[in-house]
């Protein structure tokens, strides 16, 4: 699947909307705790990427348990995504942020993470062996 210019523009637009929602959820109520969601969604794909690189199936000295490494990376990625949703809910429950800031932060964070996943899906390199 080749990603064209329209795909890049559309994904960039969605990413910008996601960041705008998270920044507005912080700036409108002068409470900058919802910005922690950005960190979790930026860090979330890293364990999946690192573990997929560590379990290279073309490795000469393959020990045969590369599936466990990939599963661990997916588990940590899933934990970070859930934490990105649960953190604003926890902050709103403790009355550190407002419920509307929570909603904007969760929606913006999900848009950011969906854009990151879409970028990796569209621009994944094909390996022909």
Brief write-up:
The chain contains five helices and no strands. With 129 residues, the chain is mostly helical.
Number of strands: 0
C-alpha termini separation: 18 Å
**Strand proportion:** under 5%
How would you classify the helix and strand content by structural class? mainly alpha
Topology summary:
Blueprint: H1 5-27, H2 36-43, H3 45-54, H4 66-93, H5 99-122
Helix pairs in contact: 1-5, 2-4, 2-5, 3-4, 4-5
Characterization of the model:
- This protein is mainly α.
- It has 5 helices and no strands.
- The protein is flat and about 50 Å long.
- The two termini are 18 Å apart.
What key attributes describe this structure?
129 residues, mainly alpha, 5 helices, flat
